[in-house]
Amino acid sequence: MDFQEKSHYDFNDLINIVRILRAPGGCPWDMAQTHKSIRSNFIEETYEAIEAIDTDDPELLREELGDVLLQVAMHAEMENEENRFDINDVVNDVCKKLVVRHPHVFGDVNAENPEQALKSWDNAKMKTKSQKSQTEAMLSVSRSLPSLMRSTKLQQKAAKVGFDWESVDGALDKLFEECGELKAAIENNDPENQREELGDVLFAAVNVSRFLGIDSEHALYDACDKFTSRFSKVEKLAAERGINMESASLSELDSLWDEVKHTN
Q: Which of 20, 11, 7, 149 is nearest to 72 (CA)?
């Protein structure tokens, strides 16, 4: 096999190594993979890179970005094997996209602040994708996105044509209205309507977060961490007081929770 170890590798070396791993005589595991078989790996590596960003760990971020890049190289090589496209086509396409969607940098459009730059990007994107309506732009939002993120993007696109509340008050009133409809669906013992109304509650909550300038995905992320931390303290407190959580009443556990909450 034509390969020699080096003290320093570059991008081309990565592509070559992936090609060797996938070629006859390479790694049996790598050779067996398909786009779908490593789909979850791509998602996992992306979230691990996000965790490195959230924890402000540059060394970990460097490693995780490499893992994400490996996923890109693997998928590109799979297509290269089918003679459809290779990594150079991927790079070419993204470079073209960057130039076309930055007319305020590479063209004659003026943008003096981030908001104007984003508007310029969106206008160029709709033009290149031949989108003539905001509905078409909304349909282009990936259905594979986490639902909170997808909700935010859809609401932002609707807001671009004025379909939006004037302030957070309207969004908050809508959230309360949806909560009432969910309560009614529960009282009516209607499982199908309960699912629908719960979805409306979550969508309305995302709208509130958008008005407040809060990333709903990150807010829920923090809420999960807070719940885990408080539950851990409740569990520890119960053990110290000889309380069996499995047999304790809800009021006993709720009392421990409130105690932890007010001392946290």
A: 11
CA distance linking residue 99 with residue 162, whole number of Å: 29
Specify the pLDDT at position 138.
Answer: 92
> What's the pLDDT at 126?
87
Give the pLDDT confidence of 106-118 residue by residue, as tens digits: 999 999 999 999 9
The answer to whether residues 101 and 121 touch, using CB atoms and an 8 Å cutoff, is yes
DSSP states of 47-81: HHHHHHHHTT-HHHHHHHHHHHHHHHHHHHHHHHH
* pTM score of the predicted model: 0.71
Using alpha carbons, select from 49, 46, 112 the residue that is nearest to residue 38: 46
CB-facing half-sphere around the CA of 223: CA atoms within 13 A = 7
Q: How far is CA 243 from CA 65, 195, 231, in A?
A: 46, 36, 14
- Give 157-185 pLDDT, tens digit per residue: 999 889 999 999 999 999 999 999 999 99
Distances (CA, A) of 79 to 19, 35, 71, 88, 185: 11, 9, 13, 12, 49
pLDDT value at 2 more than 70: no
Q: Helices in 33-167 by DSSP H: which ranges?
A: 39-54, 58-81, 87-100, 103-106, 114-128, 134-139, 147-159
Residue in 235, 167, 249 with CA at minimum distance from that of residue 207: 167
Identify the band that residue 130 occupies on the pLDDT scale cut at 50, 70 and 90.
confident
Tell me which residue has tokens 């499982």: 191
Q: CA nearest 213: which of 173, 168, 169, 174?
A: 168
Do 97 and 89 form a contact (C-beta atoms < 8 A)?
no
